[in-house]
Design brief:
Layout (H helix, E strand, L loop, with lengths): L19 H7 L20 H7 L31 H15 L18 E2 L4 H4 L18 E6 L10 H10 L14 E2 L8 E12 L5 E12 L10 E6 L6 H5 L3 H5 L18 E4 L4 E4 L11 H13 L30 H12 L12 H12 L10 E2 L13 E2 L7 E3 L17 E3 L9 H4 L14 H6 L6 H8 L3 H12 L2
Antiparallel strand pairs: 1-3, 2-6, 4-5, 7-8, 9-10, 11-12
Helix pairs in contact: 3-9, 8-9, 10-14
Length: 500
Amino acid sequence: MPILHHDMMLRPSLTRSLPLAIALACLPAQSASADHPKPTADSAMTVMSYLSSLPLQDTDRSGGDGSVPKHDTNAYSLPAKNLSFDQRLSFSVGNSFFKSPWVIAPASTTARDGLGPLFNTNACQNCHVKDGRGSLPVEGDPSVGLFLRLGLPDSHEDSWSDEEREFRRIAGVMPHPVYGTQLQNAAVPGIEREGRMQVDYEDVTVTLADGEVIALRKPRYSIVEPGFGDPGAIALSPRLAPGMVGLGLLEAVSDETLLEWADPQDADGDGISGRANTVWSLAEQREVMGRFGWKAGQPDVRQQSAKAFAGDMGLTSNLVSSTDCTPLQKCETLPDGGEIEVDDNVMDNVAFYSRNLAVPTRRDIDDPTVRQGEQLFRELECASCHRPRLTTQSGGVAEQLAEQTIWPYSDMLLHDMGEGLADDRREFEASGQEWRTPPLWGIGLAQTVNPATGFLHDGRARTLLEAVLWHGGEAQPSRDAVVALPTDQREALLRFLETL
């Protein structure tokens, strides 16, 4: 049974026109110790009590006991502080597999051969630079940090057979018959690469209330030099490799905790819904809640890792036994690294490494300007989607991840972000306009770790302010409120985000 049949608790209806100065004056300096509960439909919760019950972060340990005070170019690359000695050894082994390049088969390095035949990169670290976000492409350098997901447009759905519909239910997307689900811009000898992604930008200006003009970059994506002919009708969805910190903690939050925040029918009428994506678990062979990826299309860290091995590097595993090659590309005629190229030991260590990368501690948490910005974050209803605090489960997860109070600033749910950020590629239940709320922890260090990266799902935003200004759909009122802020309050809000 789809998970969306769970009973949902409802968000209170907020008055968006509440005067800013009054709201700030009424907000507390410290929060209650319990996680903020979602009120039921018949609860009489006022705007003031709702805002005051949202917790202000009272600790710099955003990732719980595993947080580390690292704020330089290696801020995302340390093991969680609460790992044991043996766990640190496993972390180091996983790190070596994450960083080391895979090679074309046949090779003397049999533990790391089988790359391709079609691929985007030869090592995980090439996309997740220093375990952070991917680099954006520059002219003459087709960076692997940003790539194109592919599929058939939703407009073709009426012509699908029952068998094709069932395939889409399991796979999450209808692959393009020639180019599959991802554009691979590299290939081994003996086969053409699929093509090259081209990004063209046009400026879109936004004038803020104080008169400052911000130029946003509106991207347009296309495939050039297609290796297997004109793709025709095809859905293109750009994806920037995200940061890796705190994944195990997000995996350790229960479905029930996340579903408390959902309101798929907007029953409370506040304009913000939020719903879980229902995806297919390859390990469990059933529908479960999606958590990872820009559209919450993967249920757990292991499956996310296995899919990345297959899609990004053309490597098979016991969990994902085929790559993104299509029949017309005849990849089976080329050498491979064996039926299973990423064995379970490698997958176990990579998944362990990915789960246990430490979240950096927050900085300047008690600075008055930062506190003002944090209060603004709640008053402007940013926290309605970027849920400040979560608690991980007490059982059924690794000891170092259990019973942790964390501050990811995400509800892990899908939200309609408007036409400006939309693609034409549905992923499981996520429409072209829906995206998972990305966690904000560590975001202030993203360009310290990798100066060549950007923000949002395709890196189009060069600054955090640009990222805010691209928000639409359910977030449009909050975005408009930011545009209307006086300069000092807008700077306080951005200063808060920079400390996360």
